[in-house]
Design a protein that fits this description.
By secondary structure, this protein is an alpha/beta fold. The chain is 44% helix and 16% strand. The termini are far apart. The N terminus is likely disordered.
Length: 302
């Protein structure tokens, strides 16, 4: 089979079904949205969202927060879109992830040293003496949160940096290749091509697992199954970092009508119920400053 005839990856976040959005708008009599569509496609963020639904490039563009686009107006529009509540809320979960990953790593260090972790070199002590700490992102997309944590540890806590193994798992080979390029200066990274919903995709013995922007495209049944496997992959006392999104009227309308991006929104209460049902016993949640994201950290019982 030639590359041109290979079927597209069946990714949960690729919810667009129409071959042509303008033709669908015309067929549905939504002529007023045609100029909006034309204008939005000058923005790199909007164009990626329209063409590929909730793609890893779309999320990474928001995380980087660097406006770009076509013809000048596209860059201006991109800047405006990056300031919408939905985009600011997605960035808040990115920062939340980076903070909680670092916190999870430190918790592992403290717990292992308190438990009398083996010190192979009598001249060394502290974090450099413990076994490797495993951090997994699934699906990782462009693994920018793991990269930012590695950069920070390398600059400020080099001994701790040497003890962490970062693993990114994704079904999309392009996302993995871009992640390898991003992290090429860090030998502590490994990337694996696997389906996040596959039974054998998650490794055992993880200390931190992070999954952002994935549950929004899964049913409650699928998400519960995924959470159970995340819990099973963690060591006792391990940390799981995730989030859920509430509906923003403007962002949701544009996403549904112009990108066919359909999101499953969940309340803090519902997210907590799913995490408890998955086997997590210690769960803390909070709302981001924008008010659209539930930011959750769940720990596996010791």
């Amino acid at each position: 089979m030639s590359p041109m005839s290979e079927p597209a990856l069946q990714l949960p976040n690729r919810t667009r079904r129409s071959e042509s959005i303008p033709r669908r708008l015309v067929a549905e009599g939504k002529y007023h949205l045609l100029p909006v569509y034309a204008l939005l496609t000058t923005s790199d963020l909007a164009r990626e969202g329209i063409r590929n639904s909730g793609s890893f490039r779309f999320a990474d563009h928001i995380y980087r927060n660097e406006p770009s686009g076509r013809y000048g107006v596209g860059r201006v529009l991109d800047r405006v879109l990056l300031k919408l509540r939905g985009a600011r809320s997605m960035r808040s979960r990115f920062f939340h992830s980076c903070i909680e990953i670092r916190g999870g790593i430190r918790n592992v260090v403290e717990a292992r040293l308190a438990g009398g972790a083996r010190v192979p070199d009598p001249k060394r002590s502290g974090p450099a003496s413990i076994d490797p700490i495993v951090v997994i992102s699934v699906p990782c997309g462009i693994a920018r949160d793991l990269f930012e944590v590695a950069e920070m540890l390398h600059a400020t806590e080099p001994e701790l940096y040497e003890q962490v193994d970062f693993i990114g798992i994704d079904l999309d080979p392009e996302a993995l290749e871009l992640s390898r390029t991003l992290t090429q200066d860090h030998p502590c990274f490994e990337f694996r091509c696997a389906d996040a919903l596959g039974a054998e995709s998650l490794l055992k013995g993880a200390d931190v697992v992070v999954s952002l922007g994935f549950g929004e495209f899964l049913s409650d049944h699928q998400l519960l199954d995924f959470y159970r496997r995340c819990c099973a992959s963690l060591n006792d006392g391990g940390r799981f970092i995730t989030s859920a999104m509430s509906r923003d009227r403007v962002s949701d309308y544009l996403a549904r009508e112009l990108a066919e991006l359909h999101t499953n929104y969940r309340s803090t209460e519902r997210l907590t119920e799913l995490l408890k049902s998955a086997g997590f016993t210690k769960i803390r949640t909070g709302r981001d400053k924008v008010g659209l994201q539930t930011l959750a950290v769940a720990e596996k019982e010791l």
